[in-house]
Amino acid sequence: MTSKDITTVENEAQHAIADSQKNTAFRDQSLIELGRLEAFDLLKKQTEAFTLKMILKHKEDKTYKGLPYTDENGQLSYTKTWEDYCIHKVGMSRRMVDENLANLKHFGEAFLESSKKIGLGIRDLKALRKLPNDEQTLVIESEAIDTGDKESIKDLIDDLKAKHKKELDAEKLKTKELDSQRQVAIRMRDEYQMKAMDYQTELESTKFKADAWKDQTKHLLFEATKYESNAIESLSRLMALRDHFLDNDDLSPQVVEHLAAGLLHSFKTLAEDFAQAWLETSSILEGYLPKMRPSLDVLQELNDSAMSNEE
Question: What's the pTM?
């Protein structure tokens, strides 16, 4: 190898070393800058939570009024409302600021910072906030939060959201059915009251005739016996419903609470209405209390009396 060739090889080696050093320097600089960006991004996210705490304090203390800003015409102006403050001092719409504050108050600073690092957005946190408390806890304490698996967290929130919506829809349907049943019950009660008023009007128009008083008395006693039987039947049905309710161990606490409330009111209403009716009737007919006996016995006496007269 000639001296010229040796010189050429040495020059190429030096260039290679220089290029390698240059590339290494560029790579090191890039890594430094990337680290700075990551640190800045982390600091920014931490600063967001701190800034939100300050904004929340301004809102609660109502110190957002009278703050200077430059309007679109370049003129000095002052905030008058919460919306002015959000737009001109925070640089966000009132809705966005309120959403962020709602998330801060609901989840706390620590989880808000974690969610920002993971990359969860306003919509994700809003959807999470609307879930029942136990399902929120399921998400917050999930492994995906610890590992920062954004997609798994979003999928979990979406699944729980769909489940919650299904449960709400079922609850709404059940509420609608119960309301429909309630309306039917109200309508039946009103119809019974109207029939009672019609019956009272019919009785008022009935005049006892001297020659037919026995037949009229028997008719009225027969009506009294019929309504007494109806009342006993209604009470028996209520008691059967109560016993069925008490014998069923598979009912949820919610079902037990609602059934108990309704049954107690039904029994209380019947007891109070019948007690009031008895007090009024026994007071009006007090002189006949010693002669009180079942309507069927009185009907039998009238029949026996009628047969004796025929003989």
Answer: 0.43
